[in-house]
Amino acid sequence: MPFSVLDLVVLGVVVISALLAAVRGFTREVLAIVAWVAAAGLAWTLHPLLLPTVKQHVSSDTVSLVVSIAAIFLVTLLVVSVITVKISDLILDSRIGAVDRSLGLAFGAGRGFLICVIGWVFLAWLVQGKVPDWAQQARSREILENSGQKLVAMLPDNPEGLLKQFRKPKPETDPGTDAPAEADAPPQRRTDATPRR
User: Fold this and answer.
1) What is the pLDDT along the chain (197 residues), one digit of tens a residue?
2) How far is C-alpha 60 from the geometric centre of its chain's CA atoms?
3) Of 7, 106, 139, 194, which is least packed with CB atoms within 10 Å of its CB?
4) Dist. CA 27–CA 194, nearest whole Å
5) Is residue 143 one of the residues assigned to a domain?
6) 29: domain range?
């Protein structure tokens, strides 16, 4: 059976990802992921501190939120990326540089295959079972299908509930402070007073 278009695409993605990771090194690839995670975490945690300042210049609440998160994310990513480049360059120039490149080659191949699996999952979702002929006859179809099923099985059943756990709960208001104060009742006249003669 000859190679189909899908086979060539999978092979190209895996090879390109592996070569890029080998040039950059395993350390830089791992630290790059750490940089993105750290930038996302700090942006989500610290954006409430920057949000009031941004609101003074931007009227829209949605735009203010996006600008606050994006600003912290980009600055953190830039700073951490500079640090990771320095560290990875030191490792590549050391005696273990060859080992680092070899591990990067393996890491890049795995990353490329993961990208192909995710792409296959989205393709299968879009076509709803009607896979094109160039994908149906591919040698890599069965591997992508099995890997995609395992990947989907690892996802949480309720992603919305999982995201709500990371959101900060709104502070509960004291009902005693929100209730309007009752007006003082006017003094009642005494009805048991003795009538004058």
Assistant:
1) 567 888 899 999 999 999 999 999 999 999 999 999 999 999 999 888 998 888 888 888 888 899 999 999 999 999 999 998 899 889 988 888 999 999 999 999 999 999 999 998 888 888 776 777 778 888 888 899 899 889 888 877 765 665 566 555 555 545 555 545 455 555 555 555 555 55
2) 24
3) 194
4) 99
5) yes
6) 5-154
Residue 177 makes CB contacts below 8 A (sequence gap 6+) with: none
Structurally, the chain folds into a number of domains equal to: 1
Q: Is 35 left (phi over 0), alpha (psi -120 to 50) or beta?
A: alpha
Q: How far is CA 40 from CA 20, 44, 88, 96, in A?
A: 24, 6, 22, 31
Distance CA 135, CA 145 (A): 11
Domain annotation covers residue 188:
no
Q: Which two tokens stand for residue 35?
A: 């940089």
CA dihedral for 93, 94, 99, 104, sign (positive or negative) = negative
144 located within any domain: yes
The whole model's pTM is what?
A: 0.66
